[in-house]
Amino acid sequence: MLSPWSSPIDPEILFNRDDLESLIFDFGWTDPASWLDHWLNRRGLNLASSALPFTFKNDWIWGLCLPFLSDIERNLLQEKEPMLFGISGLPGCGKSTFGRWIEAVSHELKWPVTVISMDDFYFPSTQMAQEIAGNPWNVPRALPGSHSIQLIEKTINSWIKQGELNAPQFDKSLRHGLGDRSGWRRSRPRILIIEGWFLGCSLSKANLLESQPQEMIVPPLSESEKLYRLVVQKSLQKYQPIWNKFDRIWHLKASQFHFTRTWKTEQESNMEIERGFSLKGNLLKSFIRMIEASIPQVNLQTIDADIIVEMNIDRQITRLEKSKSN
Prior knowledge:
By secondary structure, the protein is α/β, with parallel strands linked by helices. It has 11 helices and 8 strands. A hairpin with an 8-residue loop joins strand 3 (165-171) and strand 4.
């Protein structure tokens, strides 16, 4: 069994071991050995092994999966009020897959945890088309403004006050990959986790009518894209009160923004195999362009997160970082 403390060092683990130890201490453990024994005794390396068609690699197990579970467990043991966790990350980084695993693990451990997506709060298809009509990328969803802010606030507030979650569900395979509402789900979680690609993104302080030096937007922003960035910012402003409701946010951060091109393409290819429908061709190209151009990239790369888990283009975890405010 290889771990971050193995000798020789596990070649799959690229992040600094000291950063992991710092997280462990913050989660209430006095030494890494006790933390290691705790998760080995709970079959930490094999939890929810049947929930996914593959097994997470060692860097994800040690750098993300078990630390995230430790963060949840710490808060469950403290018997606090309901807590709202967020997982933010660019499309295709693996946050949805990770969320499914977290919920499967919670079921195995009998933890009252539910994971949902910001995508579940998309407007029904007809209304969503009206809300984002005229966007220069002609995407069917995903832009700020695609979601029912009122429903998000109502769902979170009702859960906090009454303990019951009644949340919509959105199926991206419907309408030949365009997606639509697909029912509701009920649960009574102590911890609710919501994931989303611009979750926690703040309003831009950059010049919205110009791309920034660190942005790799080729070709450069068109005039229609520049103008629609202003529309997106007005929509994004409505999300800020929702971000304030989160107790903890984890950011799965690409070390280079353009990695999302590869990740999103792979994600849609997998959906085609698994579900039979996906974004493809020009629609997929337009979707990726929207990700790159609709929100200044610096804002998506500087999410106000409690924990940052940085990864390379192969989704290998290369760095762990705590917020300086923690």
